[in-house]
Every structure is written in C-alpha cells, then in structure tokens.
Design goal:
The protein is an alpha/beta fold and 411 residues long. It contains eleven helices and 15 strands. It binds S-adenosyl-L-homocysteine (SAH) and iron/sulfur cluster.
C-alpha cells in the first residue's frame, strides 16, 4: 500500500492526500520510476556505493530508464555484469498497472490504469495523420466540479506521483513499440514546420486527462521535466500542452518552471455563466484569469495560448457570446487561438451539445475577427475516451454496486 502524506495546495483550503514519491514495495525494493537523476544517485549512495560510483551508475541507469525504456537492469549493457544483480536486488523499474485497454473505431486508444494502492485512472492516445497525442492524467478524480465534466463528478482521490504521471508516457511508448534503439536528440530550435516525427506515433502530450494539473504542480513539473530532458524521454516542450481550468496563482510558475504551452478552459464569457459551469471562477474571475494569461511567460504569436470553449446548447453558444469572446481576447491583447469543443455527453449530464449550425456560426464570428477557432472533432466517444468523459470504471462500478445494494435493501 502506498503511504500517503498531506500536501497543501495554494488556493485550496483542504490539504490533498498524495502518495509519497518513494515507497518501498512489499519485497523491500524501491521503484525508480519517476525519480530524477540526483535522487537516484542518493539512493545508490544510501545503498552503499561510494559517491563517484553512485553518480556514474545513476547517469547510466537514468539513460536506460527514461531514454531507452528499459525495465530490466540486465538489459543495461554498459553496466558491469556484477553490478546488474546488485541493482536488481535493491531496485525495480515499474510501470503503472494496466487494468484494461480499449480501442475505439476511430483509432483512439484508452487505458484504464491502477496505482499500487488500488486507485484507477485513465490515459488516452489519439492518433492523427501527422501526429499522435497522448492525453495524460494528473490526479485521480478532481476537486473542481465543472458541471459539464464527468471527471468533475468524481471526488478527488489523490494526486498522482511523478512516477504515475511519467509512467503513462512510458507505458504508451511500450504499447506503441517506440523506444529509440540508440540516442535520440531534440533540437531546441525545433518548430512545427521542421519537426520530423520520424514515423513516430507519439509526438505530442496534453495534460488534459483526469484532474487539474496546477493543483498537483510539483509532481506534474517533476514528471514533465523527465519527459522534456534530452537524455530522458526527449520530447520538446513545444509539443506539450498543459490545460488548466484557471488556477491563477500557479500560472506564472507553470510558465517559468515547466515552460510548456498553455491551454485555458475558459468556456464562458460572463461571470454569471462561468461561475456556474466552471466554479473555480468564483475564486479567480475572468479578468484575473486573462491578465495571468497575458503575463504567461513564453506566450507569443508563435506560441499562442489555447482557449478551450465547450459548446453547450443555449448556455454559452450565442453569437453575442462569440462577440464577447473576441472582445475579451482583444482587450487583453492575447496571442490566442480558440478551440471549440463540441460537448461530449455522459450518462446523466445536464447539457446538450450545441447544434452544428450554432457551432459554425460561433466559429465564424471568432474567425472573422482574425482569431483561429477550429472545431475539435470528437475522438473516442464510443469508448468514453473523449474530453470530459473520463471517469474511472471502478468508481462507476462501485456506484452501480451501491445502487444495486440500495435497491436490494429497499425491496
Ligand atoms: N482540468 C483541466 C484539464 C482536464 S479537462 C482543465 O479543466 O482544463 C480537458 C478539457 O476538456 C477541458 O477544457 C475541459 O473543460 C474539457 N471538457 C470537460 N468535460 C467536457 C465534456 N463533457 N465535453 C467536452 N469537453 C469537456
Ligand atoms: Fe476538473 Fe478539468 Fe473536469 Fe473541471 S474540466 S472538473 S477542472 S478535470
């Protein structure tokens, strides 16, 4: 069982339970997944290596672990044969446990994963002609209760650890068979046009799975650093997007310490509607949020901030809403693009998706003002893998069980 500690989070009253990042397993060995090089070196020194050896071995193991995807010390060919069993007796390289893997008819794949202490979470892979995007979870559940989001109907169980976050990307590379055989370099000057996917399937990451990533800032940052490190998973920060519902106090640090692209779940342009559908708005209002966006480090016309806008019938989808959206984005002079997301239904959801004509009209107004406003094609709806549909089946099952129990006891 993973040990938990309490972590206090800015902007929240109650501390959130988190698993300690290092928990020896039942057999006493320590899982290295999710640890940075310096921490691996410390553990090797604590296990008895002298400082020089610990540093050298941690460098080698780190490379094998994150760059090459090795899970077996015996495969680490530049580590002495005598050293390999020493490592294997004390350490392991784990992966999140897979409970179920599903395939959508459109090629989208969803994995139901489980932490060592038995909590379920999900990740989704969305292949396109020119890219492959992995949608990564940051928490089991979510503390926020956006009314259109299925994850928002789950309580927050706990934050995911760095290992459980980076582990999703590593698992996807395992599943897609995409670990480099040799060294793979990323270029700091890479841009969209010169990027070579080299036939790679997993090219982009979005922190848009379950949870609010900025309420698990430290772990998301530590995990993404392993993903962005050239000797780690070597994925450029330009290919990673973090989506927040608007945790204003953490946005500057996100830009400074992580430096990935930012997406903001705006979804409404008036206080009244946003207070209702994205309740964090009652704490950090639209003006405060847009000011934080205009201060976001690294945003520019080449790296625009994405404003996500879910299309809810008769709620936020009028022409007047579209004009107000344009006015707000222009007022703050934001390097913005708008992503219009048709509402993805889930059982019991209190909304309907706007009509295609309404969405087109909304999109045209924004587009004519010079702001790109594509309508996102829903992916993986048939396996509940689309935006906002993630809610773990264990939770669903236990709700179903509870319902059955209630019916049984009532009859
Ligand atoms: N918690 C973060 C990231 C995860 S949600 C956030 O809220 O930004 C990823 C995106 O899907 C968000 O923009 C979210 O608002 C949107 N979303 C949630 N439920 C949805 C639904 N039912 N249909 C379409 N989009 C939804
Ligand atoms: Fe949480 Fe994002 Fe869903 Fe809102 S939309 S409940 S912040 S996961």
């Amino acid at each position: 069982m993973a040990d938990t500690a309490l972590m206090s989070i800015p902007g929240q009253v109650d501390p959130v339970p988190v698993a300690r990042s290092i928990t020896p397993r039942a057999d006493g060995r320590i899982d290295l997944l999710g640890l940075p090089k310096a921490r691996i070196a410390e553990l090797f020194a604590q296990a008895g290596l002298d400082a020089k050896q610990a540093k050298l071995r941690s460098k080698q193991v780190y490379h094998w672990l994150y760059h090459r995807g090795a899970t077996d010390f015996g495969a680490m060919t530049d580590i002495a044969k005598t050293m390999q069993p020493w490592l294997a007796e004390r350490f392991v390289v784990g992966r999140p446990n897979i409970v179920e893997a599903q395939h959508s008819s459109d090629g989208t794949r969803k994995w139901l994963l489980q932490t060592d202490d038995g909590h379920d979470y999900e990740m989704v892979f969305i292949p396109d002609a020119d890219r492959g995007t992995l949608c990564v979870s940051s928490q089991v559940g979510c503390t926020l209760n956006c009314t259109f989001c299925h994850t928002g109907t789950m309580r927050l169980v706990r934050n995911l650890t760095p290992g459980e976050i980076v582990g999703q990307v590593m698992l996807a590379r395992d599943a897609l068979g995409e670990w480099p055989k040799g060294r793979m370099d990323i270029s700091e000057v890479e841009d969209e046009t010169e990027y070579r996917a080299d036939g790679r399937l997993l090219t982009n990451i979005v922190m848009m799975g379950m949870g609010e990533p900025l309420y698990n800032f430290d772990h998301v940052r530590d995990a993404l650093q392993l993903v962005m490190d050239g000797d780690g998973l070597a994925l450029s920060k330009r290919r990673i997007t973090l989506s927040t519902s608007g945790v204003v106090p953490m946005m500057a640090r996100c830009g400074e310490e992580i430096g990935v692209n930012l997406a903001v779940s705006l979804h409404a342009v008036t206080k009244e509607v946003r207070d209702e559908i994205v309740p964090i708005n009652r704490k950090y209002g639209i003006d405060e949020l847009l000011r934080a966006c205009s201060d976001y480090p690294g945003a520019s016309n080449a790296r625009r901030i994405t404003f996500e806008y879910v299309m809810l019938k008769d709620k936020n989808d009028s022409d007047q809403d579209a004009h107000e959206l344009v006015r707000l984005l222009k007022r703050y002079d934001l390097p913005a693009k708008v992503n219009l997301i048709p509402f993805n239904p889930w059982p019991g959801a209190p909304y309907e998706c706007s009509t295609p004509e309404r969405i087109r009209s909304f999109s045209n107004i924004v587009f004519e003002a010079g702001i790109s406003a594509p309508v996102r094609t829903p992916r993986g709806r048939d396996i509940d893998a689309a935006c906002g549909q993630l809610r773990t089946s264990a939770e669903k099952k236990s709700r179903a069980e509870r319902d059955r129990e209630a019916t049984a006891s009532a009859s």
